[in-house]
Amino acid sequence: MSDTSNLEDAAPGTRIVGAGRRQEWTGPVVNPPVWRASTHLYESTAALAEGPRHNEDGRFFYGRRGAPTQWALSEALTQIEPGAAGTVLYPSGVAAIAGVLLTVLRPGDVLLISDNAYDPSRAMGKGLLHDFGIEPRFFDPLDIPAYEAAFCERTRAVLLEAPGSLSMEVCDLPELARIARAKGAISVLDNTWASPLGFQALEKGIDITLMALTKHVGGHSDLMMGSASAGPELYARLRARAQQLGTVVSPDDAALALRGLRTLHLRLKQETDSALAIAQWLSQRAEVAQVLCPMLPGAPGHDLWKRDFTGGCGLFSFVFKGGDAAARNRFVDALGLFGIGFSWGGYESLALPIDPAAYRSCMAWPPEPASAPAPVSAGDRFGVRLAIGLEDPADLIADIEQALTAWSAP
Ligand SMILES: Cc1ncc(COP(=O)(O)O)c(C=O)c1O
């Protein structure tokens, strides 16, 4: 594997296997070694003086600019992101969101934030960005006229996420990005759920796409990292700001992320198939009012998912028919094969009690059902998010079935 320059036309699986594997970085082995380095040494004072004049990946300079392990990971992510000129790595997904927004916004700007964005993204708008003189405004991404009307001459960027955090509705991303561009604003998408395998963000008109690599790319629940990819002009700005902020990721974690990346397509396919089977099963249960899974026909946003996405993943939610928080928590506690935890995207299944109403400014919880007859009434609001891993879906269904008994009988 010495030439990864012609991967562009290859199928996603082929690209994932070959991406970032330059022979000058891997040498005679398959993976780039872990280059642990703060200091890069120079042959002479003349070479030292030359060092700072070249600021690009692939050149040794000083540890903060990384070394072949980190360069290989960012090049691999660029090669699987159609339309990207480069990818910046961050020490977590939240650090990627902060790094991107601190690149494109200035004091006095307005940032439009999708109301169903990941809560720490919302909190960043109200906290960090507000403290730096930026005004966050929340909008309903399903209400396009209201979104269009929310722009003003100070709107510099829009933060999008699809499907919505916890509530999982899919919005019309190409249209939201088109409107942002027409209004002179930069669109930023948190594409952690789909990854570039499931949604080719830059090709669909998004300006900057970011991911929490902590989730699907790491894939084994053992690292934290984030990334942001963009075309040439915005990539250069992201990279410059990341250098000013001192952003760096460890080579050990970069090597783990590269290892996870090589099986991303297989894991996502398996988790998507299992999640859909479990979502279909849940949708037939009397205890369940609504299943919020973009891949499930009739779920909120399914038609847009089918139109715009090329894949899914194992993360979806459902809402109980009636009951209360205690019954919902009994269900989660009774699960045997699911861990209880905030994360997702690992090989193991997880469950999380959810109350999205606490994190919304203008969107209703639960979402409007897409298909009639509407089964949802006011008491149907206690939700659970499931992250489906690589276990056999029949075993997961059996586990959910026995836990439903705990939900209905204290
Ligand atoms: C959609 C989404 N974006 C970003 C993040 C943040 O990633 P990290 O935990 O690596 O900071 C998360 C974490 O749960 C997430 O779900």
Number of strands: 12
Under CATH at level 1, the class of the largest domain stands as: Alpha Beta
Please name the fourth-level CATH homologous superfamily of the largest domain.
Type I PLP-dependent aspartate aminotransferase-like (Major domain)
CATH topology title of the largest domain: Aspartate Aminotransferase, domain 2
Q: What is the strand arrangement across the widest sheet?
A: 1-7-6-5-4-2-3
Tell me what portion of residues adopts beta-strand conformation. 5-15%
Keywords:
410 residues, single chain, 7-stranded mixed sheet, 2 domains, globular, alpha/beta, 15 helices, Aspartate Aminotransferase, domain 1, Aspartate Aminotransferase, domain 2
SSE order and pairing:
Blueprint: H1 12-18, H2 23-26, H3 45-50, H4 68-79, E1 86-90, H5 93-104, E2 110-114, H6 119-131, E3 135-139, H7 144-150, E4 155-161, H8 173-182, E5 186-190, H9 195-198, E6 208-212, E7 226-230, H10 232-245, H11 251-261, H12 264-283, E8 288-292, H13 302-308, E9 315-320, H14 325-334, E10 339-340, E11 350-354, E12 383-387, H15 393-408
Parallel strand pairs: 2-3, 2-4, 4-5, 5-6, 10-11
Antiparallel strand pairs: 1-7, 6-7, 8-9, 9-12, 11-12
Helix pairs in contact: 4-11, 5-6, 5-10, 12-15, 14-15
Please provide a brief summary of the model.
This protein has 410 residues and is α/β, with parallel strands linked by helices. The chain contains 15 helices and 12 strands. Strand 4, helix 8 and strand 5 form a beta-alpha-beta unit.
